[in-house]
Amino acid sequence: MRILLWIAVGLGVVLAAVAGVIALGLRSFDVQMDGEAESLLDSAQRPPAGVFTEADLANLPDPVQRYCRRTGILGKPRIQSAVVQQKGGFRTAQDGPWMPMRARESYTVNSPGFIWQARISMGSLPILTVRDHYRAGEGRVLAKIGGLFTVADERADEASLMRYFNELMWLPTAYLGDNVEWQPVDEYHARGIMTDSGMTVSALFTFSDEGDIVNFAADRYCSVTAEIERWETPIDEWAEFQGFRVPLHGQGVWKLEDGDFAYVDLKITDISFGTGSP
Fold it and tell me: Which domains does the chain have, with CATH numbers?
């Protein structure tokens, strides 16, 4: 019995030490990411003064005009930055379990950039820390176990720009930027084209009768297959933050040959906007 007791005590000490090391690793990772996010937000340039009017919508395809009115951008200044709080789930395989996730994402519009800081847990233990960013034409994904051991560090410039273009749906005035072009398709669809740092990405947007974005579809590099695959982000819930109506809940889905792979499920818990003066 005494031997078993000492074994139990020893295991407890080891587990406590491991937990302490992981806690320090997570803290170090957070400090680094917080610094990068602060640097990004500090770089945001003030947009042109003034507010959006109907005249700004005149040359846009009809569904995009409907979208702009629905989001509430008329009478408001341009958004120059935003911080978005997220929760949800993430998985690494089509039949894999959903792992709880919490994330914070910071964006700038001029010049385009984002940094996504996420913690993905297994049970109550934060097992994976992820930083995905795009800035000055460079995109990179960094993932670490417990904030300590690197399991992925990949350059992904164009894929990151595509992600940024998609997520401007949380900063709706940015879709009227000089670096975005709209082409008509039909009553419910329009093609959006964005250019930055010598790269151009395009996507098919689907809009509801009311003007909400309900899907975004594009060809994008998929690390799962190491090929260009169809990528979609269906949306089924919307909400208002600081007077802007934006998507609240949706998924990221790879349309693969052997079936759909929904790998992330996101719900927005809060958005804080930085805007230019009216």
Answer: 2-275 (2.50.20.10)
